[in-house]
Amino acid sequence: MEHVKTFQHASAYTKEIKTLLKNVKYPANTTLIFQSLPKHMRRRAMSHYPKRLPKIYRKVHLSQMKKSGKLTQHSKKPKSKKLRKNIFRKKMFLLKTHIWHSKRFLMVKKWNCKIPFCPSEKSYRSCHKAIKASCLIQDISYYNCIEINGFLADIKDRFQLLTNRNSNLSICAKTFSSGAREGHVTLFQNEMFPRGALGEVNFMWKPCKTQCEKRTLWIWIHPSCYSNILNEIIKTFELVKFQGENASNDETSIISGYENKSTNLSLIELKQTFNRFRITGPRSQSVLLKILRPSKIADEVKGSWFLEAMQSSSHRENHTLQSQFWVGCNSEQILPNMVISLNVQDPRSLGNFERMQEGKTIENYSNFSEKISESFLWNSNIRQKLKVGFINDPEYNKIVRKTALISTEKMFENCLQTVPVILIQNPGSYNNTISKLGYGGGWDLIVPDFYSSIFWQSLLFCKVRVGGFREMQSIFKESGLDMFLPDTVSGKIESEERALILKSRHFKKPLNKRCNYNKLCISSPFKLPFNELVNEWYPLESEQNFFVLRDLESLQNISKSLLRKADFPNVEPGCLIQIYIQMKTKGKLDDLSIICIPHKEDLKCAKYKNVAYTEPLKNCLIKKSKNEEKKQRLVKIDTSKVIFKNKQNKKLYNTKMKNLANSIKNSCAKEASELWIIESPKCVRKQCSREVIGYVKYSNFSYIHSKIIGIGYVVAEGLKELVNTSKEPYKILVRGKTSRNYYVANFEIPINL
User: Fold this and answer.
1) Sheet strand arrangement including 105-110
2) pTM to 2 decimal places
3) Residue 324 contacts by C-beta under 8 Å, 6 or more apart in sequence?
4) Does position 710 have pLDDT exceeding 90, yes or no?
5) In the CATH hierarchy, which fold is given to the domain comprising 502-617+681-748?
């Protein structure tokens, strides 16, 4: 019997197996290449976006699409993402972490910036827990920095015109001028204190060895009031624009700023040169200890800026002392608003972020407290050298791939340079009665602009929570502070924006769904009419406006008068006093609620019921004249529709006459809004049966107190009348703009504004 040889049998069937495999991979029917993939690998956008496919099938897919003529190229968009970013950045300021935030956050346009407002997931309660027990980080790089150079006496004389002269802690106080602490102060218009407030700023001084030399001051300004404060400083300092060259080792960069040659004062805008991250919570220091590790001089790259700087003995001593303090410091030894500067390893060289072993606690802390705050970031030449020696992520990944093939050791870590950073301590809340001590405390990390994404990613690897602008507002609310006071520039802008939003929402609703504020005796439901209220209590001159009381002594005396320990002090007329409100009984506290003086009957009724008093409904205050009735016959005023009496006028809605119809519609909407709600009300103090003394700016449910809280502003004359007429403990009545019920509430005066 003959046996069949296996290799001959296999060679005979090779052609058949090849044809079968071809038919499986490339079937003869009309299915395309992306349809032949298994279901778990298919994507919806594969047909028009070839990069969704695996690399093996892309060329075949492109050839198929070209034959069918379905492959389209969008020529309108720029070719690269960098070009798109640059085009958009010319119109609006973007954070360096914008791409990361835009995927996970709701982005909002504010102050000509794109800002992350809140996470897209439900995270309000979890963010509060992170602030209270863990760690929360925020990117606040939209704060702008300006640098002022000059002698201390000249700077002090000019800033006295822009600040409160009576305050003990001014910009040039010894605690701040040494450079060991950061301060904050409210700036005003030139010689206009207490009126004409511009906004609150943070500032820090460069440490100096002698008092005679020139000093450098950094001022951090909010973008809402940046242009106003900058123009006011230029006017008071009498500065003129200049352009100069900043020479480094290799390149020369043009610097633009302002200077005064007679006084040797100069101002430079440091926009987009630094990134500032805010880290809040009790675990913030342990997170920073994982990331910020002081660099060693022996491990540094040859020819780097750090080795050149370490050649001087003074710089070397400062570096060793700073690293010793950062490793061995306790939370008890750190002063409030303390400034610490460090020279840190690049976070990419650390790998796993393990917490450093804490050293021994420092005994002779007073010996080197001034040297801790000396940083290389103050020097513009070193900042330029940092930019030249910076290695971005694509270049760094190429170096890693090359060295990984040659040796197993991490030789690529030596190519990374050291980074100078500045840390600023945030003490949190001071008042124990309003919120917990130290709530919202933590650290601020200042980093060079081009290192922002690297430090941001390293912070995210430490299992922290990320917050936005909403979380910043909640920290201020829980600590009983107002972010933008109503007499500042940013406060006025915010109130106008809120009024426009509320007004548009109100008039978008149909007539039967709108609240009739005239019947509820609410004169201004969308805006806080503080000017009108102050003028009714104490008539002011035409040029004068209201202002918020910031004097510490007068606020302390007012709080003592509420406890019957002192008489109510004499205050300058036209001032508002900030109060912290807590609801005593059940009841809702809304934004823009009115604050009234209670009667004796109201307080007695509140003991047995939640509602102290109900406002009776009144007739509509609008009186129709004969001319207005004729107009309403011709045109029925409504924001949603414009209906004409004559049928011929319907032709306006044709395509040719659309613009004319829209203009008529807008004019009718304006007439409707003016009829129903008056923009500048004549009567605010006696708009209802109870006398109005103030308004609630915002309200919120407090997770600390488990109560509804709010911050309002009261006229000083009204508060004085409340103290004189009623008995201790003093209460106020609060009523929402959509309600008729008055509720009793407790109030307190926060001193640290």
Assistant:
1) 93-94, 113-119, 105-110
2) 0.81
3) 359, 362
4) yes
5) Elongation Factor Tu (Ef-tu); domain 3 (2.40.30)
